Amino acid sequence: MKRKSLPLVLALVAFVAACFVQLVSYSPEARAASSEVSLTVRLERAQTPLPHARFSMYRVGEFSESGEIQLIDELKGRLVISDVRQQKGWAQAAQQLSSWISELKLKAAAVDYTDENGEILFDHNDGVTRGFYLVVGDDVEYGEKTYSSLPFLITLPSWNPEDELLDYDVVASPKPGEKVNPTGDGQEDPTTLTPIPHVIGTPSQTNGTPSGSSSGSTNPVVDSRGGTRTPTTGELLVMWAPWFGLGMIALAIGLRMRNQRNS
């Protein structure tokens, strides 16, 4: 009888262990120790996505779990930024930093273009890890208009002032300004394209005052609770762990029932 019960006992142990692994892996402490972060950039004008816009991410500092920012050696003495909770002046600092890119010979950590939805996802697949970043968008022309976005600074993960926690999947929505391009030799004007609707969450953090109706570009609305990304191998294993445990239990029950029929 004890041998017949052994598969069921082992399956129960496997299920409990799998659930424990999942709980530990999704705990805030475990995520804090991970370097897996992501930034989604959403670019649109008058609710119309702007595709084919190039954005570059420059790693300009380290970001600790305690919320302290340590700038790279090239910037020490030029800027004073030390705490993620004190973001006053970040907009001006971002513009200053963007003007120093060539002088300091900074290399972009990641570069990509917005897709047809006006979105880019930067994550570990692009080499983006925990840190302090300058994000710079190039001007993009559509017909007679040129759209430009202000550079901005962001930490990954980002500080959420509402619950005073760090969020690891961040969405930034730059508000581009526009100007008339008299040459008219740019891409198709995006206002003639069919808008692709997408939901932008309630902003939990802003760098400046967002304004979608202004003709000038403004600093991005940052939502640190949005974004989508491809799960890592470890995350997939964690998500499937309970199902593995349930499968083991079902297998053990089936084996026990077969043994009972044979005895």
| CA gyration radius, whole angstroms | 24 Å
Question: Architecture of the largest domain, CATH level 2?
Answer: Sandwich
- The third-level CATH topology of the largest domain is Immunoglobulin-like
Helix content: 25-40%
Indicate the proportion of strand residues. 25-35%
Per CATH, the superfamily of the largest domain is Immunoglobulins
CATH class descriptor name of the largest domain: Mainly Beta
Q: Please tell me the overall pLDDT.
A: 73
The computed structural class is alpha+beta
Query: Please, how many helices?
Result: 5
Task: Please indicate the count of domains.
Answer: 2
Strand and helix order: HHEEEEEHHEEEEEEEEEEEEH
Question: Care to count the β-strands?
Answer: 17
Euclidean distance between termini CA atoms: 11 Å
Q: Strand order, biggest sheet?
A: 7-1-14-17-16
Let me know the largest β-sheet: 5 strands, mixed
